[in-house]
Amino acid sequence: MEQVVIIFLCLAILLYFLLGGADFGAGIIELFTSEKNRSKTRNTMYHAIGPVWEANHMWLIIAIVILFVGFPLIYTTMSVHLHIPLAIMLIGIIARGTAFVFRHYDAVKDNMQGIYNQVFVYSSFITPLFLGIIAGSVLSGQIDLNANNFADAYIFSWLNWFSISVGLFTTALCGFLAAIYLIGECKTVEDKKRFIKKAEYMNIAAVVFGAMVFFSAAMENVPLMNWVIYNKVGLTAVSLASLSLVLLWYLLLKGKTKILRLLAGFQVTMILVAISYAHFPNFIRLKGGEVISLYTTIGPDKTIQSLGWALVLGSLLILPFLGYLFYKFQQKEE
């Protein structure tokens, strides 16, 4: 049953990035849209994510519950040493959701609408930035369990070039996903061209920040090159991600948009596989070279059995209805 729990953990993290990340990316696209086109972008985005955006946080909740119940040492280490970026990320999620609701459903249309818009777009940028910083921090080897001062224990565990680079790379990927997803929601050729241009910019940003990730990893002794390039699975995943990107842009130039979302999701999945496969089942790299592994920190057998069955039965109940929800709201308006 421990394998079932770990599979659900990996799937929850992946789906939150693919679905929740695209939602954050929609706000990032709006942030970098000119004032004259923001209302069009906002309307397109709302029709795309408005009905289902809240459901995507389910995957984050599942991942947190799995870590809390099944891997308490990992949960404790992250929540203690990374409590500052975690708090900022959670505040961003709350602020973004609140602003999203009020700017659409506020009974009074006044100057507050501008504030809601600002809160939404900036929290959409900040949240994936710190989500990526947290992800980079668990791989950076900067978390020091023996730190004897506040800065070493709670600041430099995440405030380093590698973690920040991963945060920026994550933000660019979210923007890229959103732009690709939103192309299929466009009703005019003009709107489609605008989102294609946004996808190009976000793609360039992802390449630049991706290079920054490798450069900062070399500076701070993170063996990212060994994980990605000098590992057969990692190299294969990177190659497939690159090929899928080439195919994506080829189909886009040909005007074929039906499978763009699948290709974009596949590309990001391969990137995550390339980064995570080589050091699995290690979850956190600590300062000094030690690691915290999923297998060595897993909870008692009875706990894992109960958690595993709860995840299996819960998925059988929830996933069909979630799929139906997505299906209904993706149907084109007559």
From TrEMBL:
Keyword terms: Cell membrane, Membrane, Transmembrane, Transmembrane helix
Transmembrane spans: 6-32, 53-74, 80-102, 114-138, 158-183, 204-223, 229-252, 259-280, 307-327
Superkingdom classification of source: Bacteria
Entry's localization field: Cell membrane
DNA repair keyword on record: no
One term of GO molecular function: oxidoreductase activity, acting on diphenols and related substances as donors, oxygen as acceptor
Chief site of localization: membrane
Keyword Zinc-finger: no
InterPro entries the UniProt entry points to: Cyt-d_oxidase_su2
One Pfam family recorded for the sequence: Cyt_bd_oxida_II
Identification of the protein by name: Cytochrome d ubiquinol oxidase subunit II
Top-level taxonomy: Bacteria, Pseudomonadati, Bacteroidota, Sphingobacteriia, Sphingobacteriales
